[in-house]
Amino acid sequence: EVQLVQSGAEVKKPGESLKISCKGSGFTFTNYWIGWVRQMPGKGLEWMGIIYPGDSDTRYSPSFQGQVTISADRSIRTAYLQWNNLKASDTAMYFCARLVGPNEELGMDVWGQGTTVTVSS
Amino acid sequence: QSALTQPASVSGSPGQSITISCTGTSSDVGGYKHVSWYQQHPGKAPKLMIYDVSNRPSGVSNRFSGSKSGNTASLTISGLQAEDEADYYCCSYTSSSTQVFGIGTKVTVL
């Protein structure tokens, strides 16, 4: 079965660091772009960025460039989303998703279950 | 880049057809054939319904169809069913080599 499994919910304080994960199975991880999508409480979807685990090529939305880091470890079929200085405004659900094929323009057909990140003092 | 424009809500009766619009610019929707549509039920992950303007992934009902004209893409749901009640988001590739979502549309089945 093709699936993405994300790490569990996190509760952090402002200023802390965090790295959440997304593990792929059932497909050739290095042949597909993996993306991250934010959904703040009660709000819409926001495209954050994508990574191609085959060569770690990365694209960031201008809104998230410099705010987060997307990485991947192809040896363990896992993509990551990382913050170095969390803010309360980072409180959201974060989804990872696989793009339909090897091209960065495509939609996302396989989604993780989501990771809730809560940042509060 | 700004979020794509969608109507906040669309409603219809069972069996009817509804259309959701998604308006962008020549730098996104109008410039590329790479528009996708997602359905999201409350508390669930989004589900891909349409990609590349009009392609349906395997397993998606043929009641869902997509099209594009100029800077506006559209998702049509035919034979509306209660299970179609959800939020719908469009998403387009952009000239910045990124993608951008629409603001989302709540579909209500009356």
Structure description:
The complex is a heterodimer of chains A (121) and B (110). Chain A has no helices and eleven strands. Chain A is mostly beta strands. In chain A, the strands form two sheets. In chain A, strands 2, 4, 5, 6, 9, 10 and 11 form a seven-stranded mixed sheet that branches. Chain A has a four-stranded antiparallel sheet with strand order 1-3-8-7, with no helix packed on it. The radius of gyration of chain A is 14 Å and the shape is globular. Chain B has 110 residues and is mainly β. Helices cover 0% and strands 44% of the residues of chain B. Chain B contains no helices and nine strands. Chain B has strands at 9-12, 18-23, 35-40, 47-50, 64-69, 72-77, 86-93, 99-101, 105-109. In chain B, the strands form two sheets. In chain B, strands 1, 3, 4, 7, 8 and 9 form a six-stranded mixed sheet that branches. The radius of gyration of chain B is 13 Å and the shape is globular. The relative contact order of chain B is 0.34. The mean pLDDT of chain B is 97. The A-B interface holds A 35, 37, 44-47, 49-50, 59-63, 95, 97, 100, 104-109, 111-114 and B 1, 3, 32, 34, 36, 38, 40, 45-48, 50-52, 57, 87, 89, 91, 93, 96-104.
Rg from Cα of chain A:
14 Å
Number of strands of chain A: 11
Q: How far is it from the N-terminal to the C-terminal residue of chain A, by CA?
A: 40 Å
The parts of chain B where pLDDT drops under 50 for at least 5 residues are: none
Structural class of chain A: mainly beta
The number of helical elements of chain B comes to 0
Global mean pLDDT of chain A:
97
Distance between the termini of chain B: 35 Å
Structural class of chain B: mainly beta
Shape of chain A: globular
Total number of beta strands of chain B:
9
Report low-confidence residues of chain A grouped into runs of 5 or more.
Answer: none
In round numbers, the mean pLDDT of chain B is: 97
User: How much beta of chain A, percentage-wise?
Assistant: over 45%
Main sheet overview of chain B: 6 strands, mixed
Query: Strand content of the residues of chain B, in percent?
Result: 35-45%
What is the H-and-E element order of chain B? EEEEEEEEE
Q: Percent of residues of chain A in helical segments?
A: under 10%
